[in-house]
Write a structure and sequence with these properties.
Bound molecules: iron/sulfur cluster
Helix content: 25-40%
Distance between the termini: 56 Å
Strand content: 15-25%
Strand order of the largest sheet: 5-4-16-15-14-6-7
Number of strands: 34
Amino acid sequence: MPTETKTTCPYCGVGCGVIAAVADSGAATVKGDTEHPANFGRLCSKGSALAETIDLDGRVLHPEIHGQRASWDDALDLVARKFSQAVAEHGPDSVAFYVSGQLLTEDYYVANKLMKGFIGSANIDTNSRLCMSSSVAGHRRAFGSDTVPGTYEDLELADLVILTGSNLAWCHPVIYQRLAAAKAARPAMKIVVIDPRRTMTCDIADLHLPIQPDGDVALFMGLLAHLAESAAIDQAYIAAHTQGFAEAFAAAFALSFDELMDRTGLPAMQIREFFRLFETMEKVVTCYSQGVNQSSSGTDKVNAIINCHLATGRIGRPGMGPFSLTGQPNAMGGREVGGLANMLAAHMAIENANDRDRVQRFWASPTMAEKPGLKAVDMFRAVADGHIKALWIMATNPVVSMPDGDAVEAAIKACPFVVVSDILLETDTARHAQVLLPSLGWGEKDGTVTNSERRISRQRRFLPTPGNARADWWQMAVVARKMGFSGFDYQSPADIFAEHAALSGFENDGGRDFDIGALAGIDEEIYDALPPFQWPAPSGNPAFEEDNHRPGKSHAKRFFADGGFYHPDRKARFVALQAPATNRTDKDFPLTLNTGRIRDHWHTMTRTGKSARLSGHIAEPFAEIHPRDAARLGIREATLVELESPYGTAIVRALVTERQAPGNVFAPMHWNDQFAAKARISALVAPLTDPVSGQPASKNVAIAARPVEFAFYGFAATSAKPLAQAADYWATAKADGGWRIELAFRHAPGDWMAWCRQAFAIRAGVEPIGYADRQSGDIRLAFFDGARLLAVLFLARTPVAVARNWAISQLTADHSDLGRRFAIVAGRPGADQPDPGATVCSCFSVGVNSIVAAIRQGCHSVAAVGRNTNAGTNCGSCRAEIKGIIDGCLAQQAAE
Ligand code: SF4
């Protein structure tokens, strides 16, 4: 019987509980934890496929110095020496850590303590800066603390849920499923989606507001002005618990309705309907995510939303409140330990001398950073201009994720000393490391994470340590000791968590929101068994003690229903705002690029890129573009398109769709140099940031788009990893039995057979079958090793129209039959091998053609399609897409 381990999903901020099991054979399986209060057993497609991402392929297993294997002692000696030397010669601000929301809280705590309390600089920032730092800044301005007032349960209890800048269906799928289930059970519940794109989330929306990028401040200012003159205004709450209402209202009132329509791009009727819903439904939750945060006005957007909740007193009560959905698994944990350059540990403020003194006394540290450090964009600028002499990057891939990515890559390359701690040998960032340190991955490391609703859960180890890898906290603690610092003698993550908990309660008389002092004395045994719990958990809290020892019980705590904010006067602040101009386009860059996530990939694909199932959903980088724009620019469906901004270019596949608003383009942020020739979309993003939070504006980027013509286009399925660089354009993805790759060539290589042998590692002596059509230019070549297909290449002068999933399935098929071999070269599935089409349901590998066939047989609901094909019956992440396919087919049938 395999041993089961309760742990937490390492992807998004929902923080789902996972039960992992490893059989005697070593095979791992995962399932949802029915007792975890975030997901109650559900997992999305990414969570369900976790077991497919934990192999050791491509892992870095030993420390390396300049690409040569080294001992830990030598590697960490060098790191300590270089950091100490830079500090001695150039001062503490000459070094920096760039860390990650993928770190566990214990790793984050040690990084922050070492940099702020011992090195004496606040130059530690994190990829969470790119994710939700505008929410942090907005919370701190309004509440005096970085507090998420509500819980996930509020979304189910609300009568109105507003999702602004959040494609919940793809980016927080389990919360989407909880919300969809709540709406199905209580159809009177209303859902409003505010998004420039018609995303899959709109499937459950009663109202979709296709707002102009960055129109949110104006929309919520208009709402505040409307509410102030309606019965929804809560004068008693405003008077008792807030300050600044008059100024905020005056600023909002000054925005005319015409200006409101102009800034939002929304028709009057839609705006009025939105206002009516908010006014008349008391239980309202407004969720916001990257569409709000990743903006040059992100902090103002957050405050515009919070203003409306404060004005109506709809905060901290069941089913009410503003709700920030965090992108990463431990963005919240990072905030709790002060992992951002402008924060101190345990939600204390770096600008506050008393807080600095308190933390320094607690740490018994020799020094303390006295001012905020460099935020991510400024940090890499300081690397570029030579101010940063030593940089340690942990668990993140800034060459792919940072705006102006090409400049970031150049800066890292030029930095005198770069350390990278990661799990993979080859990433766009790790290739520039002078010291590469092998970290533990999910399933190997041990610690805690905090999800979007303030719930702290254990990530537990269930796999052995691979090679010589070590935990990030261990790496930093050793370096700290080698630099001569005391206070880093941790033996385990439990030691670190106990210290973190003690600091949160240290001299905390209720004046700080983050308090988990109840766990200050935690020992290994209790830490190992710790069930998920929601903070605060101050010491001596009997409810906490009781609830947290009952598995599956939610220790729900909301903030601010009765005021008690964390400004010195315990009152919240309204923020008076100005609606920003939103249009960045000009004649050279006339389109607005919006970047984001897709359903089945995570960040830079270092883990999800290992799963054939996840890679099958969308296997190539793409840009969604409206049909009118496509027609005007001469971009045809499925051709290749070049996107260009003043900062960089990318080449991706055109996806012409009315989901996209005219004038706007959407492109995913995941692809990178490991998976495509030129698809790092962040390279196009300007290093333009929110003036308060420092968060980059990744959703409103002026670009140009144009078709790119190639002489030959290709598609191949290959059992060996392709040597992709052999083509001018390529995008590769894992497939069952091997890899798939899209190709394009500016000039035909002289000898296609020789090209295949090199690109697909075909050994000498293996001769292909195939054909070449002189007139059309079509070429097909297939190589076999006995009954096994090694590689098949389809080439044409226009984008290849072969049934891709069928072609890929031939990698695992038996080809003893000669007829089947020739069927591959013909590029046509036989009658006994129907082409399933592009994957929609990753769990059961159900393609779009199979779903359409079921609909034609009379399956006109998601449930009926599920009964017929299994699609959508496991994790449910594809249900919104299935609904879209049903709607499309039925509309087509009606028109016929
Ligand atoms: Fe993981 Fe999916 Fe849950 Fe997010 S919603 S934590 S990705 S299983």
